[in-house]
Amino acid sequence: MVEIEQVVRWLKDSGEDEAAGLAKSCSLNWTWASLMSEVHGDRDYDRWDVSIEAPAQILKAVRGDKVSVATTIEAAVRDLCDATESNIIGSLRWVPKLSPVTRASAQEITEVTRRAIMDILSARNWSGRLSETEFLSRLYDLDALPSQDRRYKNAAEDIWQHRVNNNDGEPDWVFYDSRFELLSGTDREFLRFLCETVHPVVRPDTTQALEMVGLFNNDLRADGWEVIRTSEISGRPVFNAKKSAQIIEVFDEPTGWPKVDRQLGELQLRLREAVNEEQFQSIGHLCRETLISVAQLVYDPERHPGLDGVEPSKTDAKRMLEAFVSVELAGSDNAGIRKAAKAAFDLSNDLQHNRTATFREAALATEVTFSTVRIIAIISGRRER
Question: Are 124 and 112 in contact (CB under 8 A)?
Answer without folding.
Answer: no
